[in-house]
Amino acid sequence: MTEQLKAQFTQRIVELQKRIGAIHRDFADGRDADWSEQAGERENEEVLNALESEAKIEIQHLSNAITRMENGNYGICQACGEDISPQRLQVQPAAEKCIQCAE
Questions:
Q1: Quick one: which H or E segment has residue 70?
Q2: In this structure, are 26 and 67 located in the same domain?
Q3: φ, ψ for residue 65 (rounded to 5)?
Q4: Are residues 36 and 6 in the same domain?
Q5: How many domains does the chain have?
Q6: Which of 1-5, 27-31, 51-55 has the least mean pLDDT?
Q7: Are residues 40 and 81 in the same domain?
Q8: 45 burial class (0-12, 13-18, 19+ CB within 10 angstroms)?
Q9: Do 53 and 80 share a domain, yes or no?
Q10: Contact, 64 vs 88, CB < 8 A?
Q11: What is the dihedral sign for C-alpha 72, 75, 77, 81?
Q12: Domain limits at 88?
């Protein structure tokens, strides 16, 4: 079960890294000479920055979950040491804390 999850997490990390690469390529294209176009591009950059930040956070959560799998700590709350419920792990597979500690 954990091997399958690890493979899914790894695949998602690769997808997120590709997304980040596409964002970086979009930034590398530069700005349009038209002022009105530049205003739109700045708004797009803000959105792209937010997407990149979210992707990096998700990559970190997934990487941490893979490390916990490898260490035998996956599914154990990092705060209280109790098992994380299977229902929570189904909804939030990279969860680090049980629902009580996460609140």
A1: helix 35-71
A2: yes
A3: -65, -40
A4: yes
A5: 2
A6: 27-31
A7: no
A8: middle
A9: no
A10: no
A11: negative
A12: 75-103
Percent of the chain with pLDDT over 70: 84
Q: What is the pLDDT of residue 26?
A: 76
Could you tell me which of 33, 96, 44 has the C-alpha nearest to residue 67?
A: 96
SS3 content of the chain, % helix, strand, coil (to 5): 70, 0, 25
CA distance 63 to 9: 8
Q: Which residues are 76's β-sheet partners?
A: 83
Decide if pLDDT at 48 tops 80. yes
Distance between first and last Cα of the chain: 27
54 half-sphere exposure, CB direction, 13 A CA radius: 8
Q: What 3-state DSSP class applies to 76? A: strand
Number of neighbouring beta carbons within 10 Å of residue 74: 22
Same domain, 55 and 81: no
Pairwise CA distance, residues 26 & 22, whole Å = 6
